[in-house]
Design a protein that fits this description.
Number of helices: 9
InterPro entries: AAA+_ATPase (IPR003593), ABC_transporter-like_ATP-bd (IPR003439), ABC_transporter_ATP-bind (IPR050166), P-loop_NTPase (IPR027417)
Domain ABC transporter: 7-251
Mean pLDDT: 89
Pfam families: ABC_tran
Radius of gyration: 19 Å
Order of helices and strands: EEEHEHEHHHHEHEHEEH
Strand content: 15-25%
Oligomer: single chain
GO molecular function: ATP binding; ATP hydrolysis activity
CATH class: Alpha Beta
Bound molecules: adenosine-5'-triphosphate
Strand order of the largest sheet: 5-6-7-3-8-9
CATH topology: Rossmann fold
Distance between the termini: 42 Å
Protein name: ABC transporter ATP-binding protein
Length: 277
């Protein structure tokens, strides 16, 4: 079996500003993510989680080190629509209804499949996405023809997730997608995301501040620390799937929550490291 990673990050470094205002947002970040796994990134505010996601999404370039997606640069992977992105706020087009919003990327990116690198084409080979079915699966069957202004925050975020999945990205990047939602909506969306992921089995990189969310969703939780932004722990979550809301109450689940909280506290307390200018 091919064990090449879906995402390979090697010695990545990202610096903002210059002179007295230099800030090392990421330093010495190494991370390999296996295809089809669900990886969460957690860490104190300002530790570089979003920056890391932006490097993978080719929205930023590292100042040093390498990022590869299925063996090609993030730019090439994005051109081939290998990468889907769900931002913190759903950013739907207000004049299009739900179905039109989720169909739009598909319409403007016909032919992207042909630009897929061989490594990704080998793992994809999926039938075309039935967007209407996906919308029904996430409980938006009654809302297909509604405008974003007629939707709740949770419905808008579900629309954004289906939109990102429409092009069948091999890598789905999610930057705190549920952070603005109440706890019950958040739990419901976690469940729907897990159901979708179970069906689609894409590689997911998910930024969150919630320990419970990270444990429930992930195969692996990456813990980061600030100053400079760096990875301090990579914890595999060895819990069976499917992970129902009931599992959150079990001792095994609490064990992982406690472990990650301990590592996060250590990350908060970790001393600032000197970085090469
Ligand atoms: N475009 C930019 N210009 C200058 N500094 C930036 C820029 N983007 C991020 N930073 C800084 O880089 C550091 C890492 O930011 P980043 O947004 O990646 O952190 P984060 O872990 O995602 O934070 P949060 O959890 O608060 O969203 C922060 O100190 C931030 O102020």
């Amino acid at each position: 079996m091919d064990s090449s990673p879906a995402i390979r990050i090697a010695a990545a470094r990202k610096i903002y500003g210059s002179g007295a205002t230099t800030l090392t947002a990421l330093d010495g970040v190494d991370l390999d993510i296996r295809p089809g796994t669900f990886v969460s990134i957690i860490g104190p505010s300002g530790c570089g989680k979003s920056t890391l996601l932006r490097l993978i999404a080719s929205l930023e370039e590292p100042d040093d080190g390498d990022v590869e997606i299925f063996g090609v640069s993030p730019q090439a992977a994005c051109a081939a629509k290998l990468v889907g992105f769900v931002p913190q706020s759903p950013a739907l087009l207000p004049w299009l209804n739900v179905l039109q919003n989720v169909s739009l990327p598909h319409k403007i990116n016909r032919g992207a499949e042909k630009r897929r690198p061989t490594a990704a084409a080998a793992v994809s080979n999926r039938p075309a996405t039935d967007l209407t079915k996906l919308l029904h699966d996430v409980g938006l069957g009654e809302a297909l023809h509604k405008l974003p202004s007629e939707l709740s925050g949770g419905m808008q975020q579900r629309t954004a997730i289906v939109r990102a999945l429409g092009l069948q990205p091999e890598v789905l990047l999610m930057d705190e997608p549920f952070s603005a939602l109440d706890e019950f909506t958040r739990e419901a969306l976690q469940e729907q995301l897990l159901d979708l992921w179970d069906e689609i089995k894409t590689t997911v990189v998910f930024v969150t501040h919630s320990v419970t969310e990270a444990v429930r969703l992930s195969d692996t939780v990456v813990v980061m620390a600030p100053k400079p932004g760096r990875i301090v722990d990579v914890i595999d979550i060895d819990l069976p799937r499917p992970r129902s809301a009931e599992m959150i109450k079990t001792g095994d689940f609490h064990h992982y929550e406690d472990l990650i909280r301990d590592r996060l506290q250590a990350a908060w307390r970790s001393p600032e490291l000197p970085t090469a200018a």
